[in-house]
Amino acid sequence: MDRLFYIAKDEEILNGDATDIYFMRTIDVLRAAGLDKVKVRAEFHVVNLPRNYKWAVFAGLKEVVSLTVTKELPITIYAMPEGTLFKANEPIMVIEGNYVDFAVYETTFLGILRHYSSIASKAARIKKLAGDKSCIFFGARVVHPAIQPMVDRASYIGGCDGVAGVVGARLLGIKPSGTMPHALMIVFRHATGDHTLAWVWFDKVMPNDVPRIVLADTFLDEREESMIAAKLLGNRLYGVRLDTPSSRRGNMEAIVREVRWTLDLAGYKNVKILVSGGVDEDEIIKLRDIADMFGVGTSIAFPPSVDISMDIVEAYDEKSGRWVPITKRGKLPGFKQVYRCGDTFDDQVIPWDWEPAVCRDGSKPTPLLRKFVDNGKVAEPVPSDQEIRSYVLNQLRYAEI
């Protein structure tokens, strides 16, 4: 094997090798038949969102644009801005060009958009439920290391306040967020007989800009370990993390309330509580009024799939010089635009050249699909990751779950 890991190399993705074989065969057939100049418009959309989802977050556009521009593919891309909250049966991206020029990349484009959008959508739901409480993505350990940075980025632009992955944080231009593993206390317990010395040494060694968040459930009761940490570190203790194994968890809400009550009673109201370990939407709803932070990994890293598909919706007729609506059965033909009224998510999906209805307040709706690539060249730059995240958070203020 010519590599250490079963991952596609950059050049393989750029060259279109990371694809389904039937696209390569399709291109061979079309070229042999003299149909390699058939120009189409292909629409990306979701027919059905995951169960209980009213919306999803469109993510991954940056990588699609990067691939297209790097290869100078002679295609034009219209898309919603990355980070846009969209609904089922809305076109989120449209490719215009000769079909043979991008057919081999359908697999790659869909893989990027589906994976990114699935993770970003789940992260957005978690952040929406957490409200003003911090949510850190702890999912680096549950995905293949080759895609850690991508998963970190998807969770971050989806709304997470930080990521634990070192490479992902570096590429995002932020500092990684994290606490300490149980292994640290276990080693200290074995070597010194006192696991709490791990917290003291952590405080001695770590730079001042690293929050002193102690993992407080390794050997003793959560309340007891939290109090020991508070007394040892005093006002240098930023918070305690409760990562109680499911085998001993019981009622997590009761545990958090007990720790909060005890810390407050002893005068440590400033000490924050971070809950991690199997955290998902239901647990956040139960704990958001008493916990200060959440560490969420698996539920974001392995979310319900946002099943984006691509379908040809128009083909160009050389004789008449017109675009002809065409698609397979069960799909709506024609090039479409999505118009949105303010922050209401009251959207209109209409043929591209039709005039939209005015909004209920009399204002004009905003077209969501914009041209990001024009014949292989950047037409509009994709915003920075921080700008995309801010865009998502602003929309979440008005979105309902």
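The record above closes out task 2.4. Task 2.5 opens with a second protein, given below.
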Amino acid sequence: MTLSDRILMGPGPCNPYPEAVQALSQPMLGHLDPEFIALLDETNERLRTVFGTANALTFPVSGTGSAGMEAAIVNFVGPGDTVVVGVNGVFGGRMVDVAGRTGAEAIAVGHDWGQPIDIDRMVAAHPNPAMFAMVHAETSTGAQSNVAAMGARKGGALLLADCVTSLGGVDLRVDEWDIDIAYSGTQKCLGVSPGLAPLTVSDRAIERILPKPQSWYLDLNMIAGYVTGSGARAYHHTAPISMIMSLHAGLGVVLDEGLDEVRARHQAAGDAVKEGMQQLGFELFAAEGHRLAPLSSISIPEGRLGSLSEAEVRTQLLRDYGIEIGGGLGPVAGKVWRIGTMGHTARQRNVTTLLGALTDILD
């Protein structure tokens, strides 16, 4: 089956770094092979650097970002606990769903889409929750929230941060911001294929891991015996070996370029999208001062597309130009485009190509 080579400028996945793709063809090793264990340990250390943490329990969960979300919740809360969740888009809502399935009381603090999380409202929602949870970079709206401010006011609660669209692309300092648990995905700013969910857990949070979490597969008590420590590792499940090799390579690209330089590249590409789309007659959706660099949410003014629907424009972009952008979700479906500049895709050449293609289609 012949597949097309796309320019992936949607909300994810991005185009992976060539080095990450090449690493998928490395010779297979066993998940207990000393060579693979050494590579896993180095991958975890690279993740610590990108997360901005010294947490010992830092590793890629075997599954996409949603598996990271579930691991970050089911290991720490259950019946009798209260979780306060900031909801300003789809992914905050998903955390409410997962927390509720554990038997915990999930208090959703709703916000208008495109707005950042209001920390005052989070703190006022409950006097003593077990956990505060929020999305650092909301993929459905392109809005960035102030996780550091939540960390400063969490009190005795754990702080969980969804960093799926922020890790590697914007400033993130897990230890400095007092984040207890953070998870991400490999297919966004890290420039790797989907399949792993980087996770980091503070020592403070480790002390609160449930003795028998709801999920066996994501039980951090058992997984820690494999991903941490030295010498023999306790087998839990077969690690996705080739994906971890690819993540190791992708992180190597990021760190070789320099984390600050990679973030600056994401910022420059995101700025170019926003400026170019406004010049073409579009508007910006996320609140000013809280707009993500790696993901630009673009409002479509009435009449700007002429006789075409927004879905027809996206279809034409994909069919005729090989460019993928994302549509809106939930209440902004049909009204907003989500344009990603993440990982290897975060290059001016791709922004120029997209803007030129849209000009051809619309003018």
